[in-house]
UniProtKB/TrEMBL annotation:
PANTHER family: CENTROMERE PROTEIN E, KINESIN-LIKE PROTEIN. Residues 1-310 form the Kinesin motor domain. It comes from the Eukaryota. This is Kinesin-like protein. GO terms for cellular component: cilium; microtubule. The lineage of its organism: Eukaryota, Metazoa, Chordata, Craniata, Vertebrata. One of its GO terms (molecular function) is microtubule binding. ATP binds at G66, P67, T68, G69, T70, G71, K72, T73. The gene is Kif19_0.
Length: 314
């Protein structure tokens, strides 16, 4: 349940001369799912444990990462009969909040945006202009003018997300007919205040980010030309920036403190607190079992394996 073995498709078992040049690799992760895993199983083993933290005022982030066409949007959004992580997390979050309703007043607000070619678009209000990232006086990153929706009804949210997802930039590539060409970020903020009037009353704020990344891709694999090629370059650039931040964060106690460049892309700037700060982070890496995507699978596993080494002080 924790090991992935990546076989080399070009390997010939009878070729003794090249026996030790095999590219076969074994990776160990916290949890590994095969093609039989259900949405429920994936959710329970990856995300369910984060909800408690969000209610206690910690941040939490869930990434879906992997090459084009391996099922990231399915894991995060799912379908009506097989809902994904977005909906299951929010349903459990509302249940947990209702259990504390006698002592606490709470509000839940959410926004849904996409980062496409390094510009931010509001998916709940797609006609609006491109939005700016700003830093407030406390150093937290805000998005100026984004639509925030307050609701505690999971059904309503599913409709909003499905509607928002239709506004996402999707284009056909050779790898996938409905390839997501942007990173989608669902941001949920939970604010709680105690009902007992006390002096110096404290407010707990927990943020939950759920990020459906665009497919990491090689232009050769997706046969991209022209506009698609430019998009692919932007996607790869922001994923590289994310990779660089992950690398810097996971450098094990080097002699000098590693500089983490969060300003390299809008994605890493937005997720600054979630990657290096007061946050619990889960990365769900997707790979395809096809032998034609051996290289993509290898790179994805190496990327995810590095992310596993991040140590943050919550």
């Amino acid at each position: 349940k924790q090991r992935v073995v990546l076989m080399d498709p070009s390997e010939d078992p009878d070729d003794i001369l090249r026996a030790n040049r095999s590219r076969e690799k074994t990776f160990v992760f916290d949890m590994v799912f095969d093609h039989r895993a259900t949405q429920e199983e994936v959710y329970v083993s990856t995300t369910k444990s984060l909800i408690e933290g969000v209610i206690s005022g910690y941040n939490a982030t869930i990434f879906a990462y992997g090459p084009t066409g391996t099922g990231k949007t399915y894991t995060m959004l799912g379908t009506d009969c097989e809902p994904g992580i977005y909906i299951r997390t929010l349903e459990d979050l509302f249940k947990a909040l209702e259990a504390t309703a006698k002592e606490m007043d709470y509000t839940v607000s959410m926004s849904y945006l996409e980062i496409y070619n390094e510009v931010i678009r509001d998916l709940l209000n797609p006609s609006s202009e491109f939005l700016d990232l700003r830093e407030d006086s406390r150093g937290s990153i805000q998005i100026a003018g984004i639509t925030e929706v307050s609701t505690t009804n999971a059904q309503e949210i599913m409709q909003l997300l499905t509607k928002g997802n239709k506004q996402r930039t999707q284009e056909p590539t050779a790898a996938n007919k409905t390839s997501s060409r942007s990173h989608a970020v669902l941001q949920v903020t939970v604010t709680q205040k105690s009902r007992r009037q006390a002096i110096g009353e404290e407010t707990r704020i927990g943020k939950l980010f759920m990020v459906d990344l665009a497919g990491s891709e090689r232009a050769a694999q997706t046969q991209n030309r022209g506009k698609r090629m430019k998009e692919g370059a932007h996607i790869n650039r922001s994923l590289l920036a994310l990779g660089n931040c992950i690398n810097a964060l996971s450098e094990k106690g080097g002699s000098r403190a590693q500089f983490v460049n969060f300003r390299d892309s809008k994605l890493t700037r937005l997720l600054k607190d979630s990657l290096g700060g007061n946050s619990r982070t889960v990365m769900i890496a997707h790979i395809s079992p096809a032998s034609t995507s051996f290289e993509e699978s290898r790179m994805t596993l190496i990327y995810a394996y590095r992310a596993k080494n991040i140590k943050t002080q919550v």
